[in-house]
Design a protein that fits this description.
The protein folds into 2 domains: 95 residues, no CATH class; 78 residues. It has 193 residues and is of the alpha+beta class. It contains 5 helices and 5 strands.
Length: 193
């Protein structure tokens, strides 16, 4: 991949190390959606990035290490949404919920926002107010995709996990976000080169 963007392998390694540190920080501060998965991805990115950065210093073949780093980075980024999709597949019971708001992670005045829709619903007399398993990224100066689709206070169909009513999905269709898109691009570069 680094050949297509005129990056040397050490620069790509530094980018992976920075992404790994961010994933680990998010996991340790519990700001990640799946802290354990974020921690594992962070360790993988740190390992791959560190090896890529040290490749010329350790006289390791850059071609092999670049391909290994690209493959590992692609798997790490693609697995984020695959794990979320697996959790959403368990949500099979149709239910009614009231849309309340959106919860966002990492909101900035300008840049990229990441969040989920918040719904309230009742199951067996117990009230829940939870964020959905469906996560989306959007540019902060644009309207959230959830606010485009849902109106605050209206009721909509959701799908509950029968074993854990705290987990629900907005739809059963597969949805992949920015992280997995970047991961699939890395995997495509790995297989095409």
């Amino acid at each position: 991949m680094y050949r297509y963007f005129n990056l040397d392998i050490e620069s790509l390694g530094i980018i992976f190390v920075i992404c790994g540190v961010v994933c680990i920080i998010l996991a340790l501060t519990r700001k990640a959606y799946a802290p354990l998965l974020s921690f594992i991805c962070g360790i993988l990115l740190l390992l791959c990035g560190g090896l890529m950065w040290l490749s010329s210093r350790l006289s390791i073949l850059q071609w092999c290490l670049g391909h290994f780093g690209t493959l590992a980075g692609g798997i790490a980024f693609a697995s984020i949404d695959l794990v979320n999709y697996y959790k959403r597949l368990k949500c099979t019971v149709p239910w009614q919920g009231e849309f309340l708001d959106i919860s966002t992670y990492g909101v900035r005045k300008k840049g990229l926002s990441y969040g989920a829709a918040v719904f309230s619903y009742q199951v067996d007399g117990i009230s829940y107010q939870q964020s959905s398993l469906d996560k989306r990224s959007w540019l902060t100066f644009l309207k959230s995709p959830f606010l485009k689709k849902f109106t605050v206070g209206d009721r909509y169909d959701i799908y509950l996990n029968p074993n854990n009513p705290r987990n629900f999905a907005l739809s059963r269709r597969p949805h992949f976000d920015l992280f997995s898109f970047f991961g699939w691009i890395l995997l495509a570069f790995f297989f095409l080169s």
